[in-house]
Write a structure and sequence with these properties.
Strands 1-4-3-2 form a four-stranded mixed β-sheet, with helices on one face. A four-stranded mixed β-sheet has the order 5-8-7-6. Strand 3 (about 35-45) and strand 4 form a beta hairpin. With about 130 residues, it is an alpha/beta fold. It contains three helices and eight strands; from the N terminus they run βαβββαβαβββ.
């Protein structure tokens, strides 16, 4: 068994697609209209047949309270692996990305946490 798809709730799918592709560097995998929304997934360009991230509309009534509680507690909704957290932090900060946690070394991990502009905190991590 392996993870095929996971999701993040987003306020605006078009805005999320721009952020996750143009800023974070993912590539669009699927974009299928579903009424007012879309089945919209992105993948890593390093593994185009790997795990998909669904940019899921945040319309469900429970989503706002859930995401607000996580953000208020500083808890990331997702974690993305990078080769060098400090280099990625510098690159993303140069693109105007807001971080809620600067790079932090913790034993065998280095992490940082960013705001995805779509209602979520996202952690980037490198495991040493």
């Amino acid at each position: 068994m392996k993870i095929h798809l996971t999701s993040v709730f987003v306020d605006d799918q078009a805005k999320a697609l721009r952020f996750y592709t143009d800023v974070l560097g993912f590539v669009k995998k699927h974009d299928i209209p579903l009424g007012e929304d879309r089945w919209l997934t992105v993948v890593s360009p390093e593994n185009p047949d790997g795990t998909q991230l669904l940019l899921e509309p945040a319309g469900h009534p429970a989503v706002r309270q859930y995401r607000t509680a996580l953000a208020e507690d500083g808890i990331p909704l997702a974690s993305f692996a990078v080769d060098d957290v400090r280099a990625e932090f510098d690159r993303l900060r140069g693109l105007g990305v807001r971080f809620t946690q600067e790079p932090l070394d913790m034993d065998t991990n280095t992490t940082a946490v960013l705001d995805d502009t779509c209602g979520n905190l996202i952690q980037i991590i490198h495991v040493k």
